[in-house]
Specification:
By secondary structure, the chain is α+β, with helices and mostly antiparallel strands. It has helices at residues 11-24, 57-64, 101-113, 141-147, and strands spanning 2-7, 34-36, 44-51, 73-83, 91-98, 128-134, 154-160, 162-171, 174-184. The chain has a single domain (2-184), classed as Cyclic phosphodiesterase (Cyclic Phosphodiesterase, Chain: A, Alpha-Beta Complex), CATH 3.90.1140.
Length: 192
């Protein structure tokens, strides 16, 4: 099993991003070395776990159960950009501005999973939504031009009180995600 922990998106945010993807995907179609994320698969990754043996799933579900934040997480989805930058684009992303407790929740998830052999991330946590992954051979200049002017585009806000454990199934048509468990991220709330 290939697992990750993430936040879902409000439908209004998902719809707004779907419209942007529909507008610019024809400029850089999949055949050009750009792998687009289907709008229904968009999520904010808190921790990529990777491959685990299926019999360990209960351990991972149990490890995440006590993870909590002090209050709901406030998110604002704004702007389109590239990692590492527009000169050497590898990922097209939507920015996520979040209350400080999102990074704290991500760190708490890392601490909870470390005893199960999942190493902590060495990079600083940067919340974002991956819209597309770009191969190094991709001709993406037109895509970069299409994204110009979207640096501050507003896609909406959310107040999250849950995070989720997902299984990622890699298929020729792209990754498909299956929600395995949901957890309340607020101390006063109970697991769903």
């Amino acid at each position: 099993m290939r697992l990750f922990v993430a936040l879902d998106l409000p439908e209004a945010v998902r719809s707004g991003l779907a419209a942007v993807i529909a507008k610019i995907e024809p400029i850089a179609p999949r055949a050009s070395g750009v792998r687009w994320v289907r709008p229904e698969a968009l999520h904010v990754t808190l921790k990529f776990i990777g491959h685990i043996a299926g019999e360990r799933l209960l351990d991972f579900r149990a490890a995440l159960t006590p993870v909590r934040s002090g209050e709901p997480i406030k998110l604002h989805y704004r702007g389109i950009g590239f990692f590492p930058d527009a000169r050497r684009p590898r990922v097209l992303w939507c920015g996520v501005q979040a209350s400080p407790n999102l990074a704290e929740l991500a760190a708490e998830i890392e601490r909870a999973l470390e005893p199960l052999g999942i190493a902590r991330e060495s990079r600083t946590f940067v919340p974002h939504l991956t819209l597309a992954r770009l191969d190094s051979s991709a001709n993406v200049r037109d895509l970069v031009r299409a994204a110009e002017g979207m640096e501050d585009q507003d896609f909406g806000a959310a107040r999250e009180t849950e995070f989720h454990l997902y299984e990622s199934m890699l298929k020729t048509s792209g990754a498909e995600y299956r929600k395995l468990a949901s957890y309340s991220s607020v101390k006063e709330a109970r697991e769903t």
